[in-house]
């Protein structure tokens, strides 16, 4: 079969490559020798052969540290504590969505499917192993359609969703035909239908939210139209649906609309979507629709596909009482009117509403407005049945004034232009962009494959204004911009106004994703930020959990902090090297670059009992 994986059984010695060639060459060889589903090195190997002579350490990027007596401590491998692999049963462990722990919480309003992280005493202190046979995913766009079976060996969806064209099992790969419950004929035709109403093609719609995404085919097929979707679904009976999404190279997190607010800022998305997502939109006084309204940009669109839309025709095939469906749609229409959403279309089983652009076009009752003065303060905050005002009480921000994409990426975001982000001026924003272009250019010099397609899923653990992601912007990759809840400035709204995506998170806890879902992780100042807040080892173990075998890490921080990080990294099977700042050895900020070694279940006889 043409689409079957080719196996590469050649012996690899990451450590010897690292010693002989230096880390910049190691990154190149990694691209050629990775245990990959798309051949034995392919174009990257050819490029490496052509450019091998150029694989040198740049003169101003000194691999030796320049902090005298401390350097010896960093390189003292005899003091490194080797962290053992976890038991094989933890191969797909998600610490804050652990199934056993989830069942101890109430089922009302999906509370048990929300984040419930283990206390410090119950955290795993071991390395999550990859399953036997694990291979590097196919490159985009082939990964959209094919996922190696060994990476997520779960066949239940191939049976449960067979007639809906979600996923098919073929030999040693899963194939994703692009179908969905509401679009069994394919996502492309479905998106064409939406595009007849929504301006998807011209850059007006750039960021989208897919609630209850399944295997994220909607988001996967939006990508070629330059729309980036943040997809989420719970870890539930549809085993591994978010894992499949990320293996395909589509942005996704484990999540649910339950009792707490979504971890996204207000006015973030140009479009929100539910395709038979089973969310009870009319329940709890419209609380879930009000939460979608909070994150929907003025002028944005909400798409509801499936029950109860067009219930008069479909109630028999849905096997539900028509009175129940009629009441369900009545509630949705009533809440949409309260939110000042204008219904633009209802065709077949799909309805589309548009949020009004500003308060002048929508006279909302003061009694329904949320009392909170900060619609972006959402981490573990309870969801409320109230309507988010168009603009904050202390802001002259003009709602909805965004450029089309890609101009949006480097234009002045409305939040900054209006002074809505305390401590961030237009001048600071422009300077930040210059700094990150410089940093990313330096990264590209020592990791020459960073933008060649080897890294599809990238995470920035402390995204700031999104400068790193903007400097990397490419159709070959996407960046999950994380704004830590401890960050001094809440900048995630700015990230979205640039046409990028991201999420709030506290790095003292596990991230809402499966193991091995990111190809490259960037951490700027993360360990200084969390100093004395939580254990460095815990953060590194979480990074290791979500990083793919042979994935790369770039950590930028103060030298004293990086020395502590480097010592722990030596015990978690990462080949690593400390480098000077691109401006030279006198700058106290340094860079630690690393690559996770390839290993799977059974590669070590010594495992943790946890």
TrEMBL record:
Segments passing through the bilayer: 12-33
Entry EC number(s): 2.1.1.-
Keyword list, A-Z: Glycoprotein, Golgi apparatus, Membrane, Methyltransferase, Signal-anchor, Transferase, Transmembrane, Transmembrane helix
GO molecular function: methyltransferase activity
Domain of life: Eukaryota
Gene3D superfamilies per record: Vaccinia Virus protein VP39 (3.40.50.150)
Subcellular location as annotated: Endomembrane system; Golgi apparatus membrane; Membrane
GO BP terms in the entry: methylation
Keyword Membrane: yes
A Pfam family this chain is assigned to: Methyltransf_29
Principal EC category: transferase
Membrane topology, from the record: Single-pass type II membrane protein; Single-pass membrane protein
Example of a GO cellular component annotation carried by this entry: Golgi membrane
Keyword Manganese: no
Signal peptide boundaries: none
The family this protein is said to belong to: Belongs to the methyltransferase superfamily.
Protein name: Methyltransferase
The organism of origin for this protein: Escallonia rubra
């Amino acid at each position: 079969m043409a689409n079957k994986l080719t196996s590469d059984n050649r012996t690899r010695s990451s450590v010897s490559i690292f010693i002989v060639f230096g880390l910049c060459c190691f990154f190149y060889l990694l691209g050629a020798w990775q245990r990959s589903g798309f051949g034995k090195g392919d174009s990257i190997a050819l490029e490496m052969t052509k450019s091998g002579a150029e694989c040198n350490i740049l003169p101003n990027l000194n691999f030796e540290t320049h902090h005298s007596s401390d350097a010896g401590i960093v390189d003292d491998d005899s003091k490194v504590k080797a962290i053992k692999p976890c038991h094989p049963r933890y191969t797909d462990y998600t610490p804050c969505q652990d199934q056993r722990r989830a069942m101890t919480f109430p089922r009302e309003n999906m509370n048990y499917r929300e984040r419930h992280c283990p206390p410090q005493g119950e955290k795993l202190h071991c390395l999550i192993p990859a399953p036997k046979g694990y291979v590097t995913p196919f490159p985009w766009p082939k990964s959209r359609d094919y996922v190696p079976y060994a990476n997520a060996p779960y066949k239940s969806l191939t049976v449960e969703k067979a007639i809906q064209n979600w996923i098919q099992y073929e030999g040693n790969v899963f194939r994703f035909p692009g179908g969905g419950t509401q679009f069994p004929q394919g996502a492309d035709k479905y998106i064409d239908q939406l595009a007849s109403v929504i301006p998807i093609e011209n850059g007006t719609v750039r960021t989208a939210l897919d609630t209850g995404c399944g295997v994220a085919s909607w988001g996967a097929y939006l990508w070629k139209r330059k729309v980036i979707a943040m997809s989420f679904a719970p870890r539930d009976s549809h085993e591994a649906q978010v894992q499949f999404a990320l293996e395909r190279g589509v942005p996704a997190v484990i999540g649910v609309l339950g009792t707490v607010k979504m971890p996204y800022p207000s006015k973030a998305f140009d479009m929100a979507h539910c395709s038979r997502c089973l969310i009870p939109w009319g329940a709890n006084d419209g609380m879930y629709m009000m939460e979608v309204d909070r994150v929907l940009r003025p002028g944005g669109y909400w798409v509801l596909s499936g029950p109860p839309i067009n219930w008069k025709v479909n109630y028999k095939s849905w096997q539900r009482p028509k009175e129940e469906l009629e009441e369900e749609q009545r509630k949705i229409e009533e809440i949409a009117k309260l939110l000042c959403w204008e219904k633009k279309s209802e065709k077949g089983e799909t309805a589309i509403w548009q949020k009004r652009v500003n308060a002048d076009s929508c006279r909302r009752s003061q009694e329904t407005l949320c009392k909170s003065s900060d619609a972006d303060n959402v981490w573990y905050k309870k969801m409320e049945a109230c309507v988010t005002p168009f603009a904050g009480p202390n802001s002259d921000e003009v709602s909805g004034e965004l450029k089309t994409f890609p101009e949006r990426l480097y234009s002045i975001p409305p939040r900054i232009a209006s002074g809505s982000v305390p401590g961030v001026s237009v001048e600071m924003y422009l300077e930040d962009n210059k700094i990150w272009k410089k940093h990313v250019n330096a990264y590209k010099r020592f990791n020459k494959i960073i933008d060649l397609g080897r890294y599809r899923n990238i995470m920035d653990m402390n995204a700031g204004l999104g400068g790193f992601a903007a400097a990397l912007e490419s159709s070959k990759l996407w960046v999950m911009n994380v704004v830590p809840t401890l960050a001094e400035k809440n900048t995630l709204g700015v990230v979205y106004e640039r046409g990028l995506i991201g999420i709030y998170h506290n790095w003292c806890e596990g991230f809402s994703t499966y193991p091995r879902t990111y190809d490259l992780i960037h951490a700027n100042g993360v360990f200084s930020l969390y100093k004395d807040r939580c254990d460095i080892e815990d953060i590194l173990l979480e990074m290791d959990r979500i990083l793919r075998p042979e994935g790369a890490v770039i950590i930028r921080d103060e030298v004293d902090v990086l020395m502590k990080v480097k010592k722990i990294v030596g015990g978690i099977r990462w080949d690593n090297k400390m480098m000077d700042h691109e401006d030279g050895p006198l700058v106290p900020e340094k860079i630690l670059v690393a690559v996770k070694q390839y290993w799977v279940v059974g590669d070590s006889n010594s495992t943790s009992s946890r």
